[in-house]
Amino acid sequence: MPGGAKWLHVFVGEYPWASACNVKTDDWLGFGARVDGSALKFMPVYNEVVCEWEYDATLPSSIYFHVPARAFLEAGSLWGNGLDGFSAPDGKTVFRDPSASEGGPGALLADIDDLLLRLKKLGCRLVWTLLGEKYVLGEKADDTPRVTYSQTAYLTEDGTIVVRDRVFFDDYDKDQGLAT
Fold it and tell me: How far apart are alpha carbons 7 and 5 in whole angstroms?
């Protein structure tokens, strides 16, 4: 699955218009968009801007600030809110990373109404994937003691989330890797 880009020499308030954000494309820094043998294209929903303590002596360590993927900004005006996210022209914060203002793990939260409009403008759908592996102890010694599983969910146009069944793969050696 694609991963977001990480911007090192950019201040959060300068994303995405700063020169450093435009020297290299998002996909060059973090992800490949096309799915081989398909017209399907994936892109991450967020990128990260690293706020380094070397450039801001008020920080005890570097902060990884989650910012919306550039496509969301292209789907309608957004401006940094000066605290922990991005606001629409009416001043309403529509994307935010609470870790920037409250501490804790990073996350990108979105206003559902604004998100649905942006996804519609982009002709995209938001998809979540769960990919996992469990080591199974106590099984037969000659078998690979692993079980892999996957699950998907997606956001519909009306804002509901459809969660698909989790699929388990019992033979790790046979089922790992790309489907052929």
Answer: 7
SS3 assignment, position 90: coil
With contact defined as beta carbons under 8 Å apart, do 150 and 156 qualify? no
For the chain, the structural domain boundaries read 6-122, 127-175
User: 3-25, pLDDT tens digit by residue?
Assistant: 788 877 777 778 888 887 777 66
**Residues 107, 98 contacting (CB under 8 angstroms):** yes
Phi-psi region of 138 (alpha: psi -120 to 50; beta: other; left: phi over 0): left
Between CA 34 and CA 30 the distance in angstroms is 13
pLDDT (0 to 100) of residue 107: 92
pTM check: above 0.85: no
Q: CA 79 → CA 13, 17, 23, 93, 102, distances in Å? A: 8, 10, 20, 9, 20
Give bridge partners of residue 64 from the DSSP assignment: 50
Strand order from edge to edge, sheet including 93-96: 79-80, 85-87, 93-96, 109-110
Question: Do 149 and 172 touch, CB atoms closer than 8 A?
Answer: no
